[in-house]
Specification:
The chain has helices spanning about 15-20, 65, and strands at about 10, 25-35, 40-45, 55-60, 75-80. The chain has about 90 residues and is an alpha+beta fold.
């Protein structure tokens, strides 16, 4: 029996950032996910240009993106698996 419920998210890390840079990603959009948990979750979306009022876009080389690699209490930065499967 499989305990893991197919979680489509992975925590953002340096390997993902390096892969995106190597693939030519220029911008990363940060979107807060709605949950009832005491932890805030943000999804990172590469090269997304469509903005809603509550979303922020950062250049991939900015210090703001590098800071997302550092642990923050009660905040998680996640990447959906569809953005990890673009490697050929």
């Amino acid at each position: 029996m499989e305990n893991e419920e197919s979680n489509p998210y992975q925590q953002f890390n340096k390997q993902i950032l390096d892969n995106w840079k190597a693939e030519g990603v220029k911008y990363i959009k940060l979107v807060e996910l709605d949950t009832d948990l005491p932890v805030k979750f943000f999804e990172l979306i590469p090269d997304s240009v469509v903005m809603d009022s509550d979303e922020t876009i950062y250049p991939i080389g900015s210090e703001d993106i590098s800071e997302l690699l550092m642990p923050v209490a009660k905040v998680k930065f996640l990447v959906h698996k569809i953005y990890l499967e673009e490697e050929d």
